[in-house]
Amino acid sequence: MTVTTAAPNQARSPKVQAWLDDRSSDSLLIGGRWVPAKSGKTFETVNPTTEQVLGAVAEAGPEDVDAAVAAARAAFESGPWPQMAPGERARLLRNLAGLMEENLDELAELETLDNGMTIGTAQAFVQVAIESIYYYAGAVQQVFGSTAPSAPGNFNYILRQPLGVVGAIIPWNAPLTAASWKIGPALAAGNTMILKPAESTPLTAIRLGELITEAGFPPGVFNLLTGFGPEVGAPMANHYGINKLTFTGSVGTGRGILEASARTNLKRVTLELGGKSPNIIFPDADMDAAIANSLAGFATITGQVCVAGTRLFVQRDVKDEVVDALTGAADSLTMGDPLDPATTMGPLANKAQFERVQSYFEVGKAEGAVAKAGGETLDRPGYFVRPTVFDGVENSMRIAQEEIFGPVVSVIPFSDEYDAVLQGNDTTYGLAAAVWTRDVSRAHTVARQIQAGTVWINTYLQLDPTMPFGGFKESGLGREFGPDWYQHFTEEKAVFLKL
Ligand code: ADP
């Protein structure tokens, strides 16, 4: 394991540093204007690499949620947005994607400063965000209604119409990408929206708000509220003026959002929640590819990925060999300043997560698992934990059942295909899974039997906007992307016409 020295709290590019220095804490975008919280409160966002403050942002409260809903409602019902042809909405989304491309390096650097992911990963994720905005720009003009097989004397048809005001609440692990995954479909379908980024990573959402304004979206179409879950997220979930809430985050918060919908206006809810994804290696796999991807599968963004392959099932005969190789690979990661291109793993994104991951080191050891790599923090400033490979794990242990959201993998042996599927499915989650084998029949059989929204065969972490994304079981409700994306962002209207 290589560990580089403490990073400065500074941006590398003068443009990003100037933005950080010059920006105001009036970070609420409501009705096209940047404003402070009505309470005047602000809070600080911290660089997880140095634990130093990056800047202050507005701390919104319920009264700001009301103002944002009013602005989004006005923009949905009057003004230029509802008058726009779909092609014009597509053009605005393309403008936005183009601006994101022009600012890719700056956006990535800001993401690294606020979240701690390595700069290379940040660039790749900003690219994913850009692709998703382009995808939805192209998809705007694909939202067709249909004509019904009406009886003679009738002409009946089905319209697809926007829902109204969409609320989007996102987590801190891949902030800009998560924001784009919500903004793209909500706006493509003709809705207006309010975005609440996570409290620990608000900066790229603020920059995105600037770019959305620059792209020419009418005022109030996109509104941004920085702040905390209970003061902003919960009022959004309970708001009668919000027609749909799309959420990415933890299962507990997702449940609360669904309950809030049930108690209030039955707003539509899409939930993209956690995972404890099984990654299954058979002895006939291409082992080099399996090891490299398994490492990426649990260590990318320091393990803070909902689809992370944190339960590594390995056929018993090759388990020790895989543990050794994975331990070596984990130990060879270079941890340090994530802005340094030589760094291959940065810190965790915030202090709460740092403490949570450390607590699981103790849970694992107390349960009898053995940390072959890691299992400890780094003695340096910043929220750094070492990539951790737990051996001697049983699928029933807490470290194998609970989402840790850090670079921690549990290696679990299996005997045969049946056992691998049985254990793989023995979880409350069902977000993703992977299978490594050269046997085509086995690959497809396991892919069919695994209960997960995404299954990778001989690969990991691949996403594509043409493919639906979401979870089975307690990993979520509904899907993002894919050919049916618009079903989650529009209402269907049956129109009967008597001829
Ligand atoms: P984590 O615990 O990993 O931060 P959360 O689900 O709490 O995951 O956070 C994801 C997002 O949900 C964040 O933007 C957070 O502010 C928001 N959030 C937290 N609590 C609530 C809540 N009660 N209602 C709505 N949103 C919330």
Strand order of the largest sheet: 16-17-18-14-13-19-20
**What is the C-level CATH assignment of the largest domain?**
Alpha Beta
Q: How large is the count of helical segments? A: 15
Q: Identify every distinct bound molecule in the structure, by name, code or SMILES.
A: adenosine-5'-diphosphate
Q: Which stretches are low in confidence, meaning pLDDT under 50 for 5 or more residues running?
A: none
Q: How much is the average pLDDT? A: 96
CATH superfamily of the largest domain: Aldehyde Dehydrogenase, Chain A, domain 1
Largest sheet: 7 strands, mixed
Based on CA atoms alone, the radius of gyration comes out at 23 Å
Question: Count the strands?
Answer: 22
Description:
This protein has two domains: 288 residues, Aldehyde Dehydrogenase, Chain A, domain 1, CATH 3.40.605; 187 residues, Aldehyde Dehydrogenase, Chain A, domain 2 (3-Layer(aba) Sandwich). The protein is built from 15 helices and 22 strands. α4 packs antiparallel against α7 and α10 crosses α11. The longest helix has 21 residues. The chain is globular. The mean pLDDT is 96. The structure holds adenosine-5'-diphosphate. Adenosine-5'-diphosphate (ADP) binds next to α8 and α9.
